[in-house]
């Protein structure tokens, strides 16, 4: 039974995954949250048959069209819609949000937030919807998975590089890569604000799960306490905490 429970489930678009990177998928774990499947992976390479001409020689495949590259990229990103966030799965939350759910509400946070001098809100919205994009390949790696920060960053960097190549390179791919790197480095006012949105979305979701499912998710609130970098982040966190106290 344990071997069955620990199987890794891959999407139909598995060929879009670089062969040397493991994929951590949680869709199978959502119905049985105690599974450790989100911390496991299959490292076996994926082999693709070579293209051969009529005389048997191997030929390079033709370059994909821009439309083909875009659809390949978007098909791979569909995994973000079906991969539940690992923290909720581990805590037996029913019907946990997906990675895409999380990023979407972060984008809304950027949209409805007040203007801040020196902060580009449009850039914040873009950053919010790409900051976890590499998880389409590597999955939602959390501290409980036993993966170091350095290794997590390496895997995500390689996944991002693959996704940008899949998109065909060029201006849009470079924009996605730059936004992701800027966020990871916490290297700009926009990155600091979006990192606050990341924490805010998590604790707001935790509050909602507490209300809807009777959970005690105090650890999520404790993990963000004192870590907000912006005035908006601090003010919204206080509002969420105030609403939580009223419910207790």
From TrEMBL:
Polar residues: compositionally biased ranges: 45-56
HD domain ranges (all copies): 99-203
Known EC number: 3.1.3.89
Catalysed reaction, written as an equation: a 2'-deoxyribonucleoside 5'-phosphate + H2O = a 2'-deoxyribonucleoside + phosphate
Region (Disordered) residue spans: 38-67
InterPro entries documented for this protein: HD/PDEase_dom, HD_domain, YfbR/HDDC2
Cofactor: Mn(2+); Co(2+)
UniProtKB keywords: Hydrolase, Metal-binding
SMART domains documented for this protein: HDc (SM00471)
GO molecular function, one term: 5'-deoxynucleotidase activity
Family listed: Belongs to the HDDC2 family.
Biological function: Catalyzes the dephosphorylation of the nucleoside 5'-monophosphates deoxyadenosine monophosphate (dAMP), deoxycytidine monophosphate (dCMP), deoxyguanosine monophosphate (dGMP) and deoxythymidine monophosphate (dTMP).
Subunit structure: Homodimer.
Name of the protein described by the UniProt record: 5'-deoxynucleotidase
Organism of origin: Brassica campestris
């Amino acid at each position: 039974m344990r071997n069955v429970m620990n199987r890794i489930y891959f999407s139909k678009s598995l060929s879009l995954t670089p062969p040397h990177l493991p994929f951590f998928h949680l869709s199978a774990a959502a119905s049985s949250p105690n599974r450790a499947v989100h911390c496991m992976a299959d490292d076996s390479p994926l082999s693709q048959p070579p293209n051969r001409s009529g005389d048997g020689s191997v030929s390079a495949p033709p370059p994909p069209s821009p439309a083909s590259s875009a659809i390949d990229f978007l098909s791979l990103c569909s995994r973000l819609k079906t991969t539940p966030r690992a923290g909720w799965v581990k805590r037996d939350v029913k019907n946990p949000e997906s990675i895409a759910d999380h990023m979407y509400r972060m984008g809304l946070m950027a949209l409805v937030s007040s203007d801040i001098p020196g902060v580009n809100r449009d850039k914040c919205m873009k950053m919010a919807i790409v900051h976890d994009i590499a998880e389409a390949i590597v999955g939602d790696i959390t501290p409980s998975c036993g993966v170091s920060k350095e290794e997590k960053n390496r895997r995500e960097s390689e996944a991002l590089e693959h996704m940008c190549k899949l998109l065909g390179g060029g201006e849009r791919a470079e924009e996605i890569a730059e936004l992701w790197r800027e966020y990871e480095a916490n290297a700009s006012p926009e990155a600091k604000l979006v990192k606050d949105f990341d924490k805010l979305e998590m604790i707001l979701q935790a509050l909602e799960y507490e209300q809807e499912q009777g959970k005690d998710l105090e650890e999520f609130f404790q993990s963000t306490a004192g870590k907000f970098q912006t005035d908006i982040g601090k003010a919204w966190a206080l509002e969420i905490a105030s609403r939580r106290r009223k419910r207790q």
